[in-house]
Amino acid sequence: MLRPLILALGLALTALPASAQPPVWVVRDADSTIVIFGSVHLLPPGLDWRPAALDAALKDADDLWFELPIDGTASRETAQLAVARGVLPPGETLSSRLSRKGRARLTAAAERLHVPMAALERMRPWLADLTLGVAQLAGGGANGSDGVERTLSRAAPASAQRRAFETPEQQIAFFADVPDKEQVAALEHSLREMQAEPRTYDKLIEAWVVGDLKMLERRGLAPMRRASPRLYRRLVTQRNARWTQMLTERLAGSGETVVVVGAAHLIGKDGLPAMLRARGIAVEGP
Fold first, then answer.
1. What is the structure's pLDDT at 1?
2. What is the pLDDT of residue 37?
3. Quick one: DSSP state of residue 236?
4. What is the value of pTM for the model shown?
5. Residues with Cβ < 8 Å from 13, sequence gap 6 or more?
6. 156: number of CA atoms within 13 Å, CB side?
7. Hey, where are the domains in the chain?
8. Structure letter (DSSP) for residue 166
9. Is 198 exposed, middle or buried (0-12, 13-18, 19+ CB in 10 A)?
10. Whole-angstrom Cα distance, residue 85 to residue 124?
11. Distance (Å, rounded) from C-alpha 156 to C-alpha 54?
12. pLDDT digits (tens, 9 = 90+) for 142-159
């Protein structure tokens, strides 16, 4: 259940075409342009994925927006907050919260992905869920230094202002404040999926590469929306609504803007492009 949020926060994959052309969306008015691109935080090295329209926008960018600040300080703060809010109280274990089958699947996943079971046992379900997801990606050669955000931040002019929609504290809270019952259900779902459909991430990235937004929605977001509407609203819809307001305010100004957020935030009726269009703002793109 939380695994699709690795798409919302960024995905990675091991078997991609040599050249990828994911879509971009463009918003224009008389004195400003906003180019929006769906992020993949972790990527295998050497992949040529950048659309020409994105590179052109970067050259003239006055500001570059990410979900979180792209710097070492924010990364350290996020890691510290994850530990502070993702560890169970002394004497409690993760496996004690899972079903019998869930415990067996957790043990199997930990062994397969080389994640110490002792470490997982100390984690709250949301952190264990994300930890296993990232471990699966890293096992396929994914590398954070080759991810979309860091690559684009390096490529943009030094003069372009780096801005963020959220703080590390806000983003960790989106996961940590989910009720425990929903966290457990999410982890159980992820463990079942890892066992039954080990190529889920590969299929999602293959869809991202070719711009198959319907497939991304069907496999990446629809399961969460069906199983836990409240979790979906918290992690996707409500955040998109806040970002839509921020971009509407940015559009009222002037200049050239590039926005880079997780690909799942751009999909379907709850995506940023759809929310901007619902406000009467013309958006070029899928």
1. 43
2. 96
3. I
4. 0.86
5. 40, 43, 44, 137, 140, 142, 201, 202, 204, 205, 206
6. 27
7. 4-284
8. S
9. exposed
10. 8
11. 11
12. 656 667 888 899 999 999
